[in-house]
Design brief:
With 440 residues, the protein is an alpha+beta fold. Helix content is 29%, strand content 18%. It has a four-stranded antiparallel beta sheet with strand order 4-5-3-8. Strands 10-11-9-12 form a four-stranded antiparallel beta sheet. The chain is globular.
Length: 440
């Protein structure tokens, strides 16, 4: 490993720890650690600015897409054209404490607070097609059925988290109790922490700009979920010798191939009062890495992708696949035949059953990341977007063993037997013009 990469590992570990902890003290430490890479800090823990000059490129709210979820043109891409998610993720579950229905002043305060973020930081890469990392911020806010029910009517297509869990065969006791979810993501840990602190009234300035509006009195924090993704990060942080050194996720394989990600249009609500928005399925899972890595590389590859595929064509971390997962309509049609021949079924092969008539997936992996804050094993934060929650339900059901007639045992049936759901939530992310305390 080159010396500069070795030196960068402690810094990455420290920043991830700071993001996981949160708060102004963590922000101060994170800024100090990142100073050598990104320049001088511009915010301090006492709420005052260190200087008036921005540390990071500022944004232009008028250049941000109408759909909160439309990040595609502002994401880093690899050599194969695959989108590369930002390395750091923070999901903030919130409790609504405002008026019912929301007052105009409250709605204006929320919108002003979110626009402060958009002015303070560029949207992801800022639209730079060749950007090597996300030196800005991407975020979206979604509202739960409980919020809509309290202030008006629940929009069509937004199932309760309890009904989602029941529909996919999981315990409804794991349903989120949040009224809203704010998802923040960036490659820069201090950007996430500063944005979070500013929204909840802990900073007076953000990247050199005054913070004049916050969520105070309208939203309070009810939960916090962090994750990280990127080549080599899981092996650096997780205490598990089975994780490949250069794997981007804890189960060893990269995700986000072009063929298993739908277009943003496909996951956008196309009619009704929330047209232009999307729904969010937010989940925290526990992964049994011990059992997963008790298997050999060939077995893991077959269960992650498709048993009929040659592991040598996939590579140790999926690196040989380039921009395509390799799963075809023929692989889906032959699931039962493959089950009989190989006594295994692949996860990607199974999930492809939920694709539409054009063989396009129905859900888009918007953010994901390893969570080392989950007890008794490795955690995984996963946020998918789709037009309606039924799209998520139908996709998730394809993972279940009882959806199939063959008798392949659960431990050889894709990856579902290695996953345990700790929480799930369902949210609607309105288009930007309606994102501040919407009412149906």
């Amino acid at each position: 490993m080159p010396s500069d990469e070795r030196q960068d590992i402690p810094r990455r570990e420290f920043v991830r720890s700071a993001v996981a902890i949160g708060g102004t003290s963590a922000l101060s430490a994170c800024l100090e650690t990142e100073r050598g890479r990104f320049g001088e800090a511009s915010a301090s823990t006492d709420g005052a600015a260190v200087d008036a000059e921005p540390t990071f490129p500022r944004g232009d709210p008028s250049a941000v897409p109408d759909g909160q979820h439309r990040w595609g043109e502002f994401l880093v891409r690899d050599a194969h054209g695959n989108t590369v998610p930002p390395q750091q993720l923070v999901g903030i579950g919130m409790r609504y404490e405002g008026s019912t229905p929301p007052a105009d002043a409250e709605r204006e305060a929320v919108e002003a607070a979110l626009r402060t973020l958009e002015r303070a930081f560029q949207w992801g890469t800022g639209g730079d097609a060749g950007a090597p990392f996300h030196r800005g911020l991407l975020f979206m806010i979604g509202y739960a059925p409980a919020y809509f029910d309290a202030v008006g009517d629940v929009p069509a297509g937004l199932s309760t988290p309890e009904s989602v869990l029941e529909a996919v065969g999981e315990d409804p006791a794991h349903a989120d109790e949040y009224d809203a979810m704010l998802i923040l993501t960036s490659d820069v840990g201090s950007i996430l922490l500063a944005a979070e602190e500013a929204l909840f009234g802990e900073l007076d300035e953000l990247n050199g700009l005054p913070v004049e509006s916050t969520f105070e009195g309208i939203f309070s924090k009810a939960g916090r979920h962090v994750g990280y993704v990127g080549k080599g990060l899981p092996a650096d942080k997780l205490d598990h010798e089975g994780v490949p050194e250069d794997a981007p996720l804890s189960m060893g394989y990269k995700s986000g191939f072009r063929d298993n990600l739908p277009s943003e249009d496909r996951v956008t609500i196309d009619e009704g009062p929330m047209a232009g928005g999307t729904t969010i399925a937010s989940s925290t899972l526990r992964i049994d890495l011990d059992r997963w890595y008790e298997q050999g590389q060939e077995e893991r590859t077959a269960e992650m992708f498709c048993p009929a595929h040659d592991p040598d064509d996939i590579g140790a971390t999926g690196d040989k696949l380039g921009g395509d997962s390799g799963v075809t309509e023929s692989d889906v049609e032959n699931i039962d035949a493959h089950a009989g021949e190989y006594d295994r079924v692949g996860h990607t092969q199974k999930v492809a059953r939920a694709r539409d008539d054009d063989f396009e997936p129905r859900i888009l992996r918007r953010t994901e990341g390893v969570a080392d804050t989950v007890r008794d094993g490795a955690g995984f934060q996963f946020n998918a977007i789709q037009e309606a929650m039924t799209d998520f339900i139908e996709t998730r059901k394809t993972m279940n063993v009882d959806e199939y007639d063959h008798d392949v045992p659960a431990e050889d049936h894709g990856i579902t037997d290695y996953l345990e759901t700790l929480r799930r939530g369902s949210y609607l992310a309105p288009p930007r013009e309606k994102r501040a305390l919407p009412v149906i």
